[in-house]
C-alpha cells in the first residue's frame, strides 16, 4: 500500500522537528517550526487552533484558546476538545520519544473532566511520559486553565509504537 503524499509531508515535518531537538537547536526555534507546520498542512490541530509551547523528548506542552466553535450547546468547551488536545500532545511527545523508523498512534484515550472551560479561556495541555516501552507508551496529559492555573481535565493516552509504512 502506497503512503499518501500528505502523510509523507507530515512525517517529513515531524522528522525535521525531531532532528532539530537531537542537534540541540534552540527550543523556541523548534516550537516556531512546529507551529509553522500546523499552519501549512490541513489537520485537526490547525482547525482547533493548537499552538505548541514546548517540545522535548519526554514532554510536550500545547495551548488552545477556546472559541464558540469548540463549545457544546450550553456554551462550555466540548469534552472532545480536551480529548483531541490530549491526543495531540501525547502523540507528538510519543513520536519524539521513538527513533525515526517508528511511528506512534493512539490506541486508548480516556479523559476525565474536572472543571469547565469557556470561550476566551486558554487551555494548556502538558504531556508527560508514564511508560515508554518498545511497542507501547502511556502518557498523562494535564489540561489547565492558563489564567487560573486550575486543572480542568486529565487525559490518559496509550499509544502503539509501530514501524512507519
UniProtKB/TrEMBL annotation:
List the InterPro entries hit by this protein, alphabetically.
Answer: HotDog_dom_sf (IPR029069), PAAI_dom (IPR003736), Thioestr_dom (IPR006683)
Which branch of life, at top level? Bacteria
- Organism listed in the record: Corynebacterium auriscanis
Q: Which family does it belong to?
A: Belongs to the thioesterase PaaI family.
| GO CC field | cytosol
What are the protein's UniProt keywords? Hydrolase
Q: Which residues form the Thioesterase domain?
A: 75-150
| Entry-linked Pfam families | 4HBT (PF03061)
This chain belongs to the protein called Thioesterase domain-containing protein
Q: Quote one Gene Ontology molecular function term.
A: 1,4-dihydroxy-2-naphthoyl-CoA thioesterase activity
Q: Which Gene3D superfamilies match?
A: Hotdog Thioesterase (3.10.129.10)
Q: Per its UniProt record, what NCBIfam families does this chain match?
A: unchar_dom_1
Amino acid at each position: 500500500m502506497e503512503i499518501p503524499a500528505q502523510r509523507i509531508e507530515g512525517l517529513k515535518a515531524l522528522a525535521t522537528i525531531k532532528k532539530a531537538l537531537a542537534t540541540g537547536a534552540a527550543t523556541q526555534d523548534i516550537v516556531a517550526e512546529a507551529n509553522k507546520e500546523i499552519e501549512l498542512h490541513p489537520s485537526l490541530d490547525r482547525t482547533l487552533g493548537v499552538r505548541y509551547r514546548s517540545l522535548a523528548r519526554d514532554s510536550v506542552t500545547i495551548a488552545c484558546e477556546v472559541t464558540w466553535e469548540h463549545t457544546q450547546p450550553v456554551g462550555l468547551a466540548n469534552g472532545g476538545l480536551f480529548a483531541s488536545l490530549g491526543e495531540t500532545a501525547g502523540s507528538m511527545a510519543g513520536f519524539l520519544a521513538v527513533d525515526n523508523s517508528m511511528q506512534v498512534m493512539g490506541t486508548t484515550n480516556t479523559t476525565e473532566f474536572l472543571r469547565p472551560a469557556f470561550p476566551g479561556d486558554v487551555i494548556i495541555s502538558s504531556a508527560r511520559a508514564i511508560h515508554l516501552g518498545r511497542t507501547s507508551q502511556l502518557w498523562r496529559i494535564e489540561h489547565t486553565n492558563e489564567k487560573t492555573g486550575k486543572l480542568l481535565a486529565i487525559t490518559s493516552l496509550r499509544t502503539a509504537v509501530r514501524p512507519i509504512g
